[in-house]
Amino acid sequence: MVEHVRFGVVGTGVMGAAHAQTLATHPAVTVTTITSRDAVVAGEVAGRVGARVAPDWADLVADPEVDAVLVATPDHLHTDVAVAAAEAGKAVLIEKPLATSSADAARIAASVERAGVVASVLFNHRWVPAYAETYERIRAGDLGAPVVGYARKNDRIYVPTQMLSWAAQTTPAWFLSSHDIDLLTWFFDDQPVEVFATAVKGKLRDLGIDTPDAIQAQVRYAGGAVATFESCWVYPDSFPTMTDSFLEVVGAEGVIHLDRKCEQLELATTKTYEYPRTMLQRSVHGVPAGAVRDCLWHFVDCVRSGTPPLVSVGSAAVTTAVLDALHRSAATGTLQRVDPVVHQASAPREEAAP
After folding, report:
1. Domain range holding 139?
2. Does 302 fall in a domain?
3. How far is the CA of 283 from the CAs of 95, 178, 293, in angstroms?
4. What is the pLDDT of residues 142-196, one digit of tens each?
5. Buried b / exposed e along 222-253 (16+ C-beta atoms within 10 A)
6. Contact in structure between 116 and 86 (CB atoms under 8 Å)
7. Are residues 45 and 192 in the same domain?
């Protein structure tokens, strides 16, 4: 049993900064090193958690005072950092998606397997209580065999125009549908085999951001089930929540709806009407809480005990393979096969319960 885990964090954007602060509250964790392309922000985050600033990610990965590396760079920059960290013998936790091509996902998976390190991807939605309950109900047979699924995750236009400086290097599917593809593939416990997708461009392109406004895709699974995934990030900023999130699973014997547009809370003032987000990241009496915190702490527990994480690199590679095929389909207007990935099952329930 490892008593204490020393983390290095690569990337200090919205998620990287939040993850560093959440990890620093774990009693068995010290965040020792931070690095980012923005040295000023890196210094601010490091100051809040008592860490030093490394000049670049290569220095951080080589740091003997780092046991685990959290990769929170933009989507398309995960691979080199993750591979180097694994090759250096560090545990590796990667923001979703694992990578933005099947080839890069395979590189990461191979490096993790060779090194024998603990590694996972931050598909934190598996720790949302309603999604975890859905998984248990499906495993118990309450819904019968999966028939169809539908998932949408649509953002306000604030996200690609103001929150992400690198929106042109990703798409709403990589950024949003990755969560939903991970969830439905986890629920179905089946291999996705083919995808047909359509992308729509216009609003963001006219604003100088060359990325789709929206993407819809239909994925067929080996067992016959079909799932539709919708991602869009041009909702008006007047929409009452940052993300409109809905998921449906239909089985031969039942159906489950999961609507996270309003997470229990409505707020109306003289200036605004909104649904604040409470499931993923929140503070309860000054202490970080929610699914993101639970996902991070689960990984720490796995590093300390050496047990497999709930989200394996293999399962995350399947999600990347679906997204890779999805973007090929959207670009060509043709049905695309999903690159085969050796599916690594989730950890046994007694070792890695959500």
Report:
1. 127-279+311-337
2. no
3. 21, 25, 10
4. 999 999 999 999 999 999 999 999 999 999 999 999 999 999 999 999 999 999 9
5. eeebebbbbbbbbbeeebbbbbbbbbbbbbee
6. no
7. no
Q: Which two tokens stand for residue 237?
A: 């900023």
Q: Would you tell me how many other CB atoms lie within 10 Å of the CB of residue 212?
A: 24
> Residue 21 belongs to a domain with what CATH number?
3.40.50.720
Distance (Å, rounded) from C-alpha 197 to C-alpha 63?
Answer: 43
Whats the size of the chain, residue-wise?
354
Average pLDDT over residues 312-331: 98
148 and 159 assigned to the same domain: yes
User: Tokens 């998620």 label which residue?
Assistant: 15
Cis ω before 97 (30° cut-off from 0): yes
pLDDT for residue 348 is more than 60: no
Residue 181 tokens, joined: 């593809």
| Chain centroid offset of residue 61 CA | 22
Rounded to 5 degrees, what angle do the CA atoms 77, 80, 85 make? 120
Looking at residue 294, its pLDDT comes to 97
- Give the model's pLDDT for residue 342: 58
Q: Are residues 87 and 181 in the same domain?
A: no
Confidence of residue 344 (pLDDT cuts 50, 70, 90): very low
Amino acid found at 202: G
Is 39 domain-assigned? yes
Do residues 200 and 118 share a domain?
no
pLDDT value, residue 353: 41
Nearest-angstrom CA–CA distance, 198 and 337:
15
Is 299 a domain residue?
A: no
Percent of the residues in the chain that have a pLDDT greater than 70, as a whole number: 96
Are residues 220 and 324 located together in one domain of the fold? yes
Same domain, 150 and 183: yes
pTM tops 0.85, yes or no: yes
